[in-house]
Amino acid sequence: MESSLAGTAAPRCEIEMLAQGVTHPIIEVSTRLIHVEGKARGVEGIARDITERKRAEESLRQSEERFSSAFRASPISIAISTVAEGRYLDVNESFLRLFGFLATRLSAIRRQS
Fold first, then answer.
1. Mind listing the pLDDT tens digit for each residue in 101-110?
2. CB-count exposure of residue 91 (10 Å: 0-12, 13-18, 19+)
């Protein structure tokens, strides 16, 4: 509140609430300074529960991490490419070894249909 009155408050912040239960809700708080006749007279704030969004973001991050680990460590050659252009977006080390490509030159190579 003091930082908001001083005009230095961030427009939004996230706060993990401490609760006695098992869950710890995450709240996003937005504030703005209220001026009356040119003077700061108060703060208006809005808080909303973003717990589910944060859980979904964390779940997605973990899923991406698992995919990336499996993709990179796989002994099977894997390539991700665009369908329309046949351009390689990413390949794993097994793919590079099997086809003898250098990762730096891969962007210039097109997949043959």
1. 877 676 666 6
2. buried
In sequence order, the β-bridge partners of residue 16 are 26
Q: What is the pLDDT of residues 28-87, one digit of tens each?
A: 999 888 999 989 899 899 999 999 999 999 999 999 999 999 999 999 999 999 888 888
How far the first Cα of the chain sits from its last, in Å, is: 62
Q: What does each C-alpha distance from 88 to 2, 39, 79, 96, 104 come to in angstroms?
A: 53, 59, 7, 12, 12
Burial (Cβ within 10 Å: 0-12, 13-18, ≥19) of residue 38: exposed
- Residue 101: which residues within 8 A CB-CB, separation 6 or more? 91, 95, 109
Rounded CA Rg of the chain: 25
Residue 79 and residue 63 in contact, taking contact as beta carbons nearer than 8 Å: no
Please report which helix (H) or strand (E) contains residue 73, including its range.
Answer: helix 51-73
Q: Parse the chain into domains and list their residue ranges.
A: 2-52, 74-113
